[in-house]
Amino acid sequence: MDSRLRCRELKSKVMSAKEAAKFFKDGMVVGTSGFTPAGYPKAVPLEIANRAKNGEKIGLTIITGASVGPELDGELSESGVMKRRYPYQTNSTCRNKINNSDINYCDMHLSHTPQWVKYGFFGNMDIAIVEAVAITKEGHIIPSTSIGNSNVFVEYADKIIVEINTSQPLELEGIHDIYNVDIPPFRKPIPLTKVDDKIGTNYINCNKEKILGIVFTDIKDKTRPVSKIDDVSKKMADNLIEFLENEVRENRLPENLLPLQSGVGSVANAVMGGLVNSKFKDLVVYSEVIQDSVIDLIEAGKVKFASGTSLTISPERLDDFYSKFNNYKDKLILRPQEISNSPEIARRLGVIAINTAIEVDIYGNVNSTNIMGSRMMNGIGGSGDFARNGYLTIFTTESIAKNGDISSIVPMVSHHDHSEHDVMVIVTEQGVADLRGLSPKERAIKIIENCAHPDYKEALYKYFNEACEGKYKHTPHVLSKSLSWHDRFMKTGSMQNKESLSQNN
Ligand code: COA
User: Fold this and answer.
1) Which of 8, 253, 273, 305 is the least crowded, having the fewest Cβ atoms under 10 Å away?
2) How far apart are CA 351 and CA 329, in angstroms?
């Protein structure tokens, strides 16, 4: 206990998770640590959920860094405690309740969350629950596998509960770099000009008077296994790498590229994984999540430094990772998401932003969040922070979904996350559409020709040609038909116009 809780005055604050859970009252706004299923509080949320399961009326607004594990998003959704949620989630129970309007969800850019707390846009924050590996002699908090918004919540919440998690190794101490950003009109430039710059402290500055309770737990992060890299993802990765190699040949990128940001999910992991077999070396990563593929790249000698806000290592990899942790420690840094996702830094460093789309339209607009225009998947996450400010903004998607019943290239996106003004390059397993500097009509031809699946190419051209009929159209659409593909899928289970196919036959 002494190595984990080094502040004598705080020893009297140690309590059980059940006791800590009693501090939460109906209607409170609660900020928690956690970004992906890494570094989120576990023991206290489980006990809050138990209170509700035992019949107590308790509804909370939950603000996190990003998605968190099942003990938090799953249990608080299931038990009905979660009434309002910001800024991002990936839990299936939480998602279903959001889509059923049991939870009010405001999907937002991850760089906005910390400043909204600071600006008071969410109202007052009552309690922060923060996971830590240790508390220093002075009462400061050493975070665990993620930082997310913890530093901001610790500063702005009225009270704090710390979960010291003994399953998180003490060796993590030193990997964090906590820097505070002032609010306007006092904000200054963030003094970070290289991916490996260290600009802050190893700990979160904490006023120990605000600590309500300290709970010890050893519940492990519930990180998810990484899905295998299939042929389609490999093709996407190959297409992307070929594109980047060409950028180097054309002198638009240096030989070791620029800092890479990569999104979440199986496709993003495969794309990053593909770099292991590429010619590139001395790469650097400036992203949110450091996942297995980045560790593979470090091990392969391809990546020399990676900066993120969360360390999300798959369960099968975790023991090996920590056994060799000292080999990685000087190549990794975790920052608050206010810094990892800062538009200022993304633009200054010239980040190559690689994120995943659910669907893309023929003009280059991207939907990353809503299935068939209505059903929330996860959220925009940090993709917009990087996409708007990247040196190069790339979106990847398989050209079809649901065994070919859906074309991911559509006449018009059914929900809009990233506009044609931010999207520079589309990559599918079919090929690459480089949209830089193209007019909408040129973009449409490039996207259909290079990225659409052969089964949908003809229908996309048909739509585009019909839309181009008539004069004075810059971004041609047939409004009565622009979302008809989605409508057809909802009615028939396929975007393919089977009637017209059989008539043509
Ligand atoms: N229409 C309908 N459904 C589609 C679709 C489309 N055009 N394209 C994909 N899907 C479905 C898949 O079938 C799959 O469904 P399932 O869960 O029922 O199997 C689901 O969407 C996820 O697709 P998958 O191919 O497994 O991709 P993924 O795991 O790589 O996730 C996103 C893709 C877009 C959902 C994910 O990357 C995301 O949430 N992105 C937004 C946040 C973000 O970009 N953050 C990055 C900065 S951290």
Assistant:
1) 8
2) 23
